[in-house]
Design brief:
The complex is a heterodimer.
Chain A: E1 5-10, H1 11-21, E2 26-29, H2 37-47, E3 54-57, H3 61-73, E4 79-82, H4 84-89, H5 91-99, E5 105-110, H6 124-127, E6 135-138, H7 142-157, E7 165-170, E8 178-183, H8 186-192, H9 220-249, E9 256-259, E10 266-271, H10 274-287, E11 292-297, E12 299-301, H11 305-312, E13 317-322, H12 332-340, E14 349-354, H13 364-380, E15 387-389
Parallel strand pairs in A: 2-3, 4-5, 5-7, 6-7, 10-11, 10-13, 13-14, 14-15
Antiparallel strand pairs in A: 1-8, 6-12, 9-11
Chain B: E1 9-16, H1 21-33, E2 38-43, E3 53-61, E4 76-79, E5 99-103, E6 117-121, H2 123-129, H3 141-152, H4 157-167, H5 172-185
Parallel strand pairs in B: 1-4, 4-5, 5-6
Antiparallel strand pairs in B: 1-3, 2-3
Classes of the chains: A alpha/beta, B alpha/beta.
């Protein structure tokens, strides 16, 4: 195995470098804050002769995803990057990419949606595309951003999966923050991720085929079933590939990673960069004798209900922390977590905390507050307020 | 720093847009990373305008850094441009007994920042002497890192110089020499 070179780089560069190591053939992209550095770096790699690929400069994100679909249909390894309004604009095409079973990989700089206009960290953009049939990965730090790009290609292109994948890194908190990362050697990535060959045909003028044609009521439901079944069965493939990655590159990935959960009475469930701060809070609370644990969600789609049941099934309380909101209900991670426990006799009492919208900071003290509130509900045996917003500024509210 | 002491260092750079505060923070982080420390560095999250007051940040720790918030209570504050003292409270949140490094020809005794330890270095003079920018627009971000190395002691001058080579696009020798001179000249140590 080749040496893994250490670099100090921003999150966008980590995902761009991860993409480059996968030797993509086509990268259609439309720049948008906070993921702009991704297409910048890719075009630099191409201009410097470090990457042999076509970059397509398009006039919108809708076109970017359309071009991705075309490129992936001919069997090209395809990736792009976007965020926020950009992902909203490509929404229509996201469903077509997954419905056509195209393993496109998108690096996302997770950012809030307008209005009011806001360029900062928030998971609303990818959560809003939850039902588009894409696999969704979220990174805690830049190393994970880089590794997850490689993993996303490998998982997406697996014949048992064949679905597109998004890799989210939080806007600014990761996209613009320099951290130390270890970069796998090119020859090792080449071995881990062989060239992509579509297993079921591709667009080819010499062998004409129709893609994405009309699916009448006689066929549509079965085709959707196939697509959804591929997603439902993907956890097995994801676990297998995570394990293979760990063997090859020495870094462990799980769909959910527990931390100090074994004897924990209350568990915090987090996603993205906030997990780091939550871990620091858990460490401090543990020093004070509190039985608290942390579960980090790396894969949001498919939702790892099986693992969450294993990790949190015996806990007394589960505090689900969401950096997104579905108006009229609560956070998406909470809704899914609650859903998977519905038929279980033994389950934790659950509370949902909405945090960090539009780049609002999430401090250690905020996690301690969430823990305390959940503990209080556990002691009382009931939850007064299911969804609570944390770190609100009373001065700003009317 | 006492060798082996387990402490996270949080550093805040004050400059004006275009003066290289962000590059300084990144360079410092890389230098520390070369010593197997865990690091983060980041700009003020948002937009930057040339000439407007900006801040940039670095975290350095022997252990893995978990925390993901911005820095509100730095251990060390570095001021690249003295005109900022009139418009920004550079001591905001500075930890009790924290350190301030100022780019000035004056002596530390000429300043009073309550509990802070004050260090001064004429980084402007050093930069101009080494052909880094002009009297009115000196590029002081590399010189000031030399002063940092001497004052804080948790990152070696040697690694600062190596990181300068990677992060500064031009005049490597001049920038490294500026760091060396500031390392020697900083007052208050």
């Amino acid at each position: 195995m080749g040496e893994q070179k250490g670099l100090t780089i921003q999150g966008n560069m980590a995902t761009a470098l991860g993409a480059k190591l996968c030797r993509p053939d086509v990268i259609p992209a439309y720049p948008i804050t906070p993921s702009t550095l991704f297409p910048e770096k890719i075009s630099e790699y191409i201009a410097d002769g470090e990457l042999d690929a076509s970059m397509i400069r398009v006039e919108s994100e809708h076109s970017a995803m359309s071009a991705c679909i075309g490129a992936s249909s001919i069997g090209a390894r395809t990736c792009t990057a976007s965020a926020s309004q950009g992902i909203a604009l490509m929404h229509e095409m996201l469903f077509i990419a997954s419905g056509m079973r195209l393993p496109i990989v998108m690096a996302v700089g997770n950012r809030a949606l307008s209005a009011p206009i806001n360029i900062w960290a928030d998971h609303q953009d990818t959560i809003a595309s939850r039902d588009s049939g894409w696999l969704q990965f979220y990174a805690e730090k830049n190393q994970e951003g880089l590794d997850l790009m490689i993993l996303a290609f490998k998982i997406a292109e697996d014949e048992r999966v064949l679905l597109p994948a998004m890799v989210g890194i939080d806007g600014f908190v990761l996209t613009h923050t320099v951290e130390g990362v270890k970069v796998p050697a090119q020859e090792d990535v080449d071995e881990f991720l062989p060239p992509y060959e579509p297993p079921h045909g591709k667009l080819d003028p010499k062998e004409p085929m129709t893609f994405g044609s009309l699916g009448t009521p006689e066929y549509y439901q079965e085709l959707k079933y196939d697509q959804v079944e591929a997603m439902d069965k993907s956890p097995e493939v994801i676990d297998e590939i995570f394990e293979e990655f760990e063997k090859e590159f020495g870094r462990e990935y799980n769909r959910i990673t527990p931390y100090k959960c074994d004897d924990a009475e209350i568990i915090l469930l987090t996603m993205g960069s906030m997990t780091g701060t939550a871990r620091a809070a858990v460490d401090e609370m543990r020093e004070d004798g509190e039985k608290v644990g942390l579960a980090k969600l790396t894969v949001f789609r498919p939702f790892p209900g099986d693992l969450l049941k294993e990790i949190a099934g015996d806990a007394k309380g589960l505090a689900v922390v969401d950096r997104n909101i579905s108006p009229g209900f609560g956070g998406a991670v909470f809704a899914e977590s609650a859903g998977i426990f519905i038929n279980e006799k033994k389950k934790p009492l659950m509370k949902n905390f909405i945090v960090g919208l539009g780049g609002r900071e999430i401090f250690k003290k905020n996690f301690k507050e969430m823990y305390k509130k959940t503990k209080k509900s556990v002691e009382k045996g009931s939850v007064d307020k299911m969804v609570e917003w944390i770190n609100m500024d009373e001065k700003v509210m009317r | 720093m006492i060798k082996g002491e387990e402490k996270m260092y949080e550093v805040r750079f004050h400059g004006r847009g275009g003066q290289g505060a962000v590059t300084a923070a990144h360079t410092l982080a890389e230098a520390a990373f070369r010593e197997d420390k865990d690091v983060q560095s980041f700009p003020m999250f948002g937009v930057e305008r040339r000439g407007a007051p900006v801040a940039a940040f670095a975290r350095i720790d022997e252990k893995e850094i978990d925390i993901k918030t911005q820095i509100y209570e730095p251990d060390i504050v570095i001021v690249l441009d003295m005109s900022l003292l009139d418009v920004v409270d550079v001591t905001d949140g500075l930890k009790k007994g924290g350190k301030i490094i100022l780019n000035t020809a004056k002596k530390p005794s000429e300043f009073d920042f309550d509990d802070a330890e004050i260090f001064t270095v004429n980084a402007t003079d050093i930069a101009v002497k080494n052909g880094l920018g002009t009297e009115t627009n000196p590029i002081v971000n590399t010189a000031i890192l030399g002063a940092y190395s001497r004052v804080v002691g948790n990152v070696s001058l040697d690694n600062i110089k190596k990181a300068i080579e990677n992060n500064v696009p031009v005049k490597h020798d001049e920038n490294k020499k500026a760091a060396e001179e500031a390392y020697e000249d900083v007052v208050g140590v």
